[in-house]
């Protein structure tokens, strides 16, 4: 496997992701920000975004096991929305049979491309 996810000593352990990814592969994959075109609440859109990322990865022979970094942009983010975000990730993980645990960054933003989009998820992956 080209990616190893770790939590180095001295850094907090976060349930939903690891602090560091070590990539030894040679093929770098960038997945454009994915959105849910069918609308829905935040959890539903998060789930669809992750499923879309999985589809994009599969298109080049990769899976979430190959992801080295996730970036999540959420419209009008507040910490009170974390349960919705985590619910969407859990639902996607259940459908995918894996838990996306690569290092991740979460950004609260003012808006996305259309008002119906509440979240966008992008990924970087590495293959051997």
UniProtKB/TrEMBL annotation:
One Pfam family hit: Ribonuc_L-PSP
Superkingdom to which the source organism belongs: Bacteria
InterPro entries linked to this entry: RutC-like_sf, YjgF/YER057c/UK114
SUPFAM superfamilies listed in its UniProt record: YjgF-like
UniProt name for this protein: Enamine deaminase RidA
């Amino acid at each position: 496997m080209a990616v190893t996810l770790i939590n180095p000593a001295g850094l907090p352990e976060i349930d939903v992701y690891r602090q560091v990814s070590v990539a030894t592969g040679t093929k770098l994959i960038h997945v454009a920000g994915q959105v849910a075109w069918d609308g829905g609440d935040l959890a539903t859109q998060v789930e669809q975004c992750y499923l879309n990322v999985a589809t994009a990865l599969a298109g080049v022979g990769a899976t979430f096991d190959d992801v080295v970094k996730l970036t999540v942009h959420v419209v009008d983010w507040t910490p009170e929305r974390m349960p919705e975000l985590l619910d969407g990730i859990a639902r996607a993980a259940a459908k995918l049979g894996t838990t996306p645990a690569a290092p991740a960054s979460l950004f609260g933003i003012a808006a996305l491309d259309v008002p119906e989009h509440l979240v966008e998820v992008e990924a970087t992956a590495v293959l051997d």
